[in-house]
Amino acid sequence: QYLNKTETPLTEDGRPHVEYIPTSFLNDFCDVVEKWGLKGKFSIVPNPANRGSILEGVKGVDFNKVKEWLEIAKKRLTPYFSICPEMMTHFLAVDLETGKDLDITESEWSQTQDRTTLKPYIKRSLEILLEAGFDVCGVTTPGSFGWSSEDEVIASVSEAVYELTGSKN
User: Which whole-number Å values give the CA distances from 4 to 88, 89, 146, in the listed order?
Assistant: First the structure.
C-alpha cells in the first residue's frame, strides 16, 4: 500500500515499511538458516527504491555497510539459497536510459509492457547481481508484476537469464 507513488510504502496496518534490512538482522536470519539447513530462494533488490545501485552505493546507507551486507549474503546464504533480483527497485519503475524514476510502480508499469521493454529491465536487474558476485538463475516478481503480460515476462526472464548465463533452466 502506498500513500502515493513518491512517499514511503506502508504496511496493511499503516506503519511505514522498514527502509533497509540491517546486517544484524541478516546475520540472525543466516544463523537460523545454518542451524536448520533451510533452503530456497532469496531475493535482493538491486537498486532499492531507486536510491542507488548496490554496486555503487545506496542513498542513506554507508557504502561499507552495503558491501558488508552483500558479503554476508554471499558467504552465508549462497550455500543454501538461489539468489534472485526482486526486479530493479521494488517500488517505482526506472527509466534505464536516464536512471530517473517513472511516475508508476514496477508492477503497474509491467502490465502494459512486452519483451522489448521487459527484457532489458529484467536483464539489468540480473546484471547488477552478477556484477555484485552472485550467481543468478531467475527473478522474483514484486506484487502483481506482469500479471497482464505473463507470457512476455516469462519469455523476457528466460531470454535474459540465457543471454547472461548460458543456462536454459
Answer: 19, 16, 21
